[in-house]
Amino acid sequence: MEGKKNYTGLTDSQVKESRQKYGANILTPPKKEPLWKLFLQKFEDPIIRILLIAAFLSLGISIIHNEYIETIGIFCAILLATGVSFWFEMDANKKFDVLNQVNDEDMITVMRNGNIRQVPKKDIVVGDIVFLEMGNEVPADGELFDAVSMQIDESCLTGELSIDKTIDPEHFEEGVTYPSNWVLRGTKVINGHGVFEVARVGDATEFGKVAEKSTEKVEGETPLNRQLDSLAKFIGVIGLVLAMLTFAVLFIKNIFNDPAVHVSLGELGLLGAVMIGVAITMVKVWLPIIYDGLELAGKDIKLPKAVAEGSWLRWLLTGALVTVVLAFSGYIFGVNPLDDDSWISIDVAANILQAFMVAVTLVVVAVPEGLPMSVTLSLALSMRRMLKMNNLVRKMHAVETMGATTVICTDKTGTLTQNQMQVANTNFYGVADQNLTDSEVSRLVIGNISVNSTAFLDFSNKEKVSALGNPTEGALLLWLNKSKILYSNIRNKEEVLDQLPFSTERKYMATLVDSPKLKRKVLYVKGAPEVVFAKSKHVAGINGEAPVSEFKDIVDEQLLQYQNQAMRTLGFAYKYIEEGNNQSVEELASGDLIFLGIAGISDPVRTDVPGAVERCLNAGIGVKIVTGDTYGTAKEIGRQIGIWKDEEDTDRNIIGGIDFENLSDDEAYERVKDLKIMCRARPTDKQRLVHLLKQRGEIVAVTGDGTNDAPALNYADVGLSMGSGTSVAKEASDITLLDDSFSSIATAVMWGRSLYKNIQRFILFQLTINVAALLIVFLGSIFGQELPLTVTQMLWVNLIMDTFAAGALASLPPDPNVMNSKPRKNSDFIITSSIGKHILTTGILFVVLLLGMMYYFSTPEHLNSFFSYIPEADRNGYFLSYFFTVFVLLQFWNMFNAKAYGTGKSAFAGLSKSAGFELVALIILIGQILIVTFGGEVFRTMPLTIQDWGIIIGGTSFVLWIGELVRLFKKK
User: 591: Cβ–Cβ under 8 A, 6 or more apart, which residues?
Assistant: First the structure.
């Protein structure tokens, strides 16, 4: 059908007017958060928040005692953890920005002021007449005025590699996502040429709308954050309970059990008024912790609005007012609050304040200062190591979220398939065993493929030859290339006399050539098999030509077989033309052709995909295909990768985008559970699917490379874009797969699960230290014993050593066995019952041993007899160094138990592959030796003898050997 041919285009004034009315052809870039805001976001981590509370409580103690080392240490821990996390994400985003550059300066051919000219893509406006040639990227949305043999690659929007475009309504294709006479921004012309009028630019284009959807903020916590939030609440509750218990015990001990202290009822009343006032003042600290405890117990109660939203000043004034009112109500009972004698003595007040400080110290000790740093370090190291395995992680928590994934929604083209059409099968009836030789029929097949084509091959990458132009024709050229036949040699030798390009209306292409090899003129015809076969009179067979009637059933059966496998099919024919025949190519191709055969062409599944999908299915992860492709193609790909079973699956397991849209929310909610394939899907369908799956409690990972995938990538728990995908898709994602391979997704799941195990191992290691320290401080304060460790020594254990241990445990290689278990539940607590038992058992064992040491060596006789080789004046200081080293070495050996947790193997298993772990263990041991030997007054240490080092290292190693015996017993 002829299109409009007389174009004048817009005038300069009309261009200006259009730009003012409809805007420029620029996509609004996603709003970038300022750096300071990104840094502050790191403080939203639940463990960081509880650490901040501990830091400010510690600051209060420091001001009273004029000792600031521990407070500085805690603030350093916070800044280290947030700083490292911020730096690694910034570094990943810099790499991503380089990968994701967009060019709005590409020159586009337009008609303006009646003249053809070129303008940058960003200067295109609504109403512009744009000329498209093969290889061009469409700069905006619009309606075609003219289309000659035009085919468009719409894979970035629909997943379709090749869509025929026409302006003839009779040949409009039904069931396609976008009309046959429309072209869309971001798509590419792979064949033919055309002219269109721009109707929408910039954000108003389909590409722009999808891009905008992809940058919408999606609220929601990551699974790890939910787990750490529960852990922070649990630690807060334990700390508060122990603090209140300690304060109560010490209060009773100092006020009622001390015979030297006499407190009247009036003094107690005024003291009670002050304590109630202080409790009200600090209500924003302790009441949320109580509510956290209720939440952990399964009670869903909201924190009162007055506490949640009320300011600190408001509660400070309320507490002061309550104290004053209660104190002055003492007049009723004859107590004068203005009389100094009505109040308790300064000494008693000092004892109560000391009890309060001990209680606050318990809260500080309960918080694992090294945990945020260790989690950050684990995530950061995994980010770096995953990059080497083709996973560019932009958002740190995405590493671990992959391990919690329960459903993967994957697109087809480029992720499951190779995104390059290839010849899957051929049936050239005159070619024996389909091996091309120098026979006449073989030459005709080679000539038809080589010359009767608009495609080319790109040999610039010698390792991977790629097709340019029409992907179906390119597949045929690649097939010749595999047989060591260079299409360009044939194309250069055969003189093209005339050519009839492919069109949607004709459904075939014909080329008339003068062939020196065949020494005559040949008409090559290629197109839809049913069309080409209908124009044929004979079929070229092995034994010569035969009537088409003899081959009709064979051809129909083979075509049906290929179509059932979702292949594209082409038919080939030829005709010798006598000299002096002046008919047009279209007339020559109208009949009496000799049929050569058919070819089945498909975008093959990547070789590694079925294995990777099987790994995911075995790991309890559901895999769903969401594609813009047809029902048949999607189903066949599902069959090939192993998610569609003909004997099990029904129509309930597959749905089209329009049918899915027509389902009510309740119906769709139930249907998504069984869905395996969604075909003819549009961006909104994919996003709705992800939304409903998340509503069902699933952790959803979405893969995609096209702009159409971006909204779902953004909405998913983890968005995985392809390195070769569009900039919009990559911007919406959390992880970019640099090799475009589904197998990299299975690898990311393995890394995520292994990382979660490593974080659990570190929590086991760290909380054992905290439980031991907490119980010693708690019991010591009640029985009048102080923990014989200085603040600097505890900082070494809680910060430096723990950070190294985090590095050691994070450096453990991922364990492939994690893919044999089901995904953890979203509601699971990060401390499992076995971890809890291990922490308590080991912690109490350490406490018994350490308190036993403290008690034994508190007697001068035992101290002097055991350390008789040390000068008497130095024995107490030497014991403190000895005690400190025993404390550290107990944790050191426990690190090996932590390494073996959850593996069912010995701590020594896989040491040859854990060089990082061994190196860090060695650094910790050497660090302890250096601190004890050279720490001096800063660490309050004295050098130990080699003999004592041997005794401590050997003696504390029982922690490891007991662990080995327990693991051996469990194994049996």
Answer: 535, 537
